[in-house]
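User: quick one, fold this
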Amino acid sequence: MSEQIAYLNGDFLPLTEAKVSAQDRGFLFGDGIYEVIPVFQKKLFQLNAHLDRLRNSLNAVSIQDPYTDTQWETLLNDLIQKHPWDNQFVYLHVTRGVQLVRDHLPENNLKPTVYAYTNPLKPVADHILKHGIKAVTLEDIRWLRCDIKATTLLPNVMMKLAAKQQGADDAILIGRDQTISEGTASNVFIVKDGVLHTPPLSNRILPGITRMMIEKIALDHNIPLLEQQLFLADLETADEIWLTSSTKDALPVCSLNNNTIGSGKPGPIWRKMQAYFEQTKQALMAAED
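Assistant:
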């Protein structure tokens, strides 16, 4: 393919040439917000929901949104069209901007840095669809505002590495109160006796777009759903466990801490949800034509 293109502060340029100042607060402090938006058949999926979440996170940290919804849509569509892939995922990133004197306190009226690029969105591997993934439980070592989609992801990286070192694909995080929060980059659902459960939204949980869609699909298709606190024992006795995200939909967890979950294969409610999710996705994309 031709060279990948990135968007940086108003310009499209080769990805390898995109550079930001070493004095950018995003580099020095992780002072920024990001979003990941899936693209199907070159159409941004659930863009308004992603932009709402972006704006909520920016407002929470007092960074001004640099663009209107229309401007975001235009630049992201322009970026998508510069690449050959029908299915992509867009990463966009807004930092507070460049400040020449390093100080925890930001200067007034800094100009935000805006960066975006896209990669091909590959389907989930067949062996995962057939056999699920392995997860472990780890202590949630993150900060107390996980509802903000901040770029400061070092704890997530550390926990992902710790899961890998234990031979697992991912980790499900447990707080100091012993409640389940989420995965390293995903929301958590369990199925017990035909009922879908997920932790309620809080400052410890990112309001996932896929989580929101799954809740709506469950309501539309009469799948019982409860938002309630989950504990390790709930995971260990679950019939099914799912990890949900914008680029993976719902991944079935079939092994937790080296113990089999349910039958050891993706469960029947997950299979139903996969079919309903794909139907909903196609309907939403068709409605945008």
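User: anything notable?
Assistant: The chain has a mean pLDDT of 96.
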